[in-house]
Amino acid sequence: MNSLDVENDNRENQSNYFELLPVEITCYIFCLLDIPGLCRASETCQDWNDLIMNTDFIWKGPCLTLQSVCPKEVKNDVEKGYSLKETVQRNYRKSQVKHKWLSGHFSNLHSSVSLPEEIMCQMDADTWALILEAELTR
After folding, report:
1. What residue ranges do the domains of the chain occupy?
2. Is domain 3-92 classified as CATH 3.40.630?
3. Which residues contact 106 (CB under 8 A, 6 or more apart)?
4. How far apart are the C-alpha atoms of 61 and 84, rounded to whole Å?
5. How is 67-128 classified by DSSP, letter by letter?
6. What is the value of pTM for the model shown?
7. Any idea what DSSP says for residue 18?
8. CA 95 to CA 36: how far, in whole Å?
9. Is residue 52 a contact partner of residue 58, using CB atoms and an 8 Å limit?
10. Which pLDDT tens digit goes with each residue over 107-120?
11. For residues 5 and 13, is the Cβ–Cβ distance under 8 A?
12. Phi, psi at residue 19, to the nearest 5°?
């Protein structure tokens, strides 16, 4: 075996090491990722995508994170029978926008024209009341 063959064998072993892990361990590793990390991992290869998209408990941590920002929305989706993954997908963008509003990210804007259109999303009256209250206390 020449050095080129050894190098190719090493590359194959390195690229397939994840396949050697039991599925339970792989799922545990994915459970440690945040939402953007899960999305990036799902784009890595078809096997990872299938595992991430079809294993609901991987989405428990991200769902709990969303619940801290959008408790009513998450509760409603769970009660309606949406999976954890679907609940995360339905509420992630809203939680990001709501978090930015509540943390004062848009406090220094003087006009609605200054708001980037891509950050806007539909929110209920209770959410706007929370945002207004936070703005008034700043």
Report:
1. 3-92
2. no
3. 100, 115
4. 9
5. HHH-HHHHHHHHHTT--HHHHHHHHHHHHHHHHHHHTTTTTT--SGGGS-GGG-----HHHH
6. 0.71
7. G
8. 13
9. yes
10. 877 777 777 776 67
11. no
12. -70, -20
Specify whether the CB–CB gap between 89 and 117 falls below 8 A.
no
As given in the structure block, the two tokens for residue 131 are 């945002």
Most distant CA atoms of the chain, gap in Å: 73
**Phi, psi for residue 111 in degrees, rounded to 5:** -155, 150
- What's the token pair of residue 109? 């804007």
How many CB atoms are located within 10 Å of the residue 14 CB?
8
| Separation between Cα atoms, residue 87 and residue 59, nearest integer Å | 9
Structure tokens given for 72: 């009513």
Sign of CA pseudo-dihedral 77, 83, 84, 90: negative
Digit-coded pLDDT (tens) for 40-81: 999 999 999 999 999 999 999 999 999 999 999 999 999 999
User: What is the number of other CB atoms lying within 10 angstroms of the CB of residue 126?
Assistant: 9
